[in-house]
């Protein structure tokens, strides 16, 4: 079953995937409002509302109707500066955003996780992603879509050395571990927003690539 959401809440609009998704959303004729809070100002658009500042401050202040919420928040331990700071973004902030979106009436949450997300993983990054997934599941969303992309490929404003090295190699790996272009991921996320079904759906990277073609 397909629906046509017209009021969107988007977190992470300044990131690689979020920026591409925002551009797509603002060019969809059926969308009348995109609420995209961010730390840095976004380019103005007639259908864009862009509260700027500290998420801890503006999250409770967000208001208005929301049909679908996208969460593209994410960082790296290197960028965050410590494991605790990484968890504050990739778990705490994601969960807080999802909670606020639910309070605003969103029925469907689409959240970016990562390949290998696992509560019991010995890898800190994967374990935090698994904990985040468990926390948003506990919010009892009518519809929850968890996207688990593999290595993201694309031009970042601030390039990540590990991705620059691993990116070409990831294109040679088959199946869900094959690298995924950020533009493909953004297309896939929008298409997932058009699908209506109850419960939780986990989409691995190989399926995301097919959806994003």
UniProtKB/TrEMBL annotation:
Instruction: Give TM segment ranges.
Output: none
Q: Which domain of life is it from?
A: Bacteria
Q: Which InterPro entries does the UniProt record give?
A: NAD(P)-bd_dom, NAD(P)-bd_dom_sf, Semialdehyde_DH_NAD-bd
Q: Which GO terms describe its molecular function?
A: NAD binding; oxidoreductase activity, acting on the aldehyde or oxo group of donors, NAD or NADP as acceptor
- Cross-referenced SUPFAM superfamilies, in alphabetical order? NAD(P)-binding Rossmann-fold domains
Which CDD domains does this one have? CC3_like_SDR_a
| Pfam families for the chain | NAD_binding_10
* Semialdehyde dehydrogenase NAD-binding domain span: 7-106
Under what name is this protein listed?
Answer: Uncharacterized conserved protein YbjT, contains NAD(P)-binding and DUF2867 domains
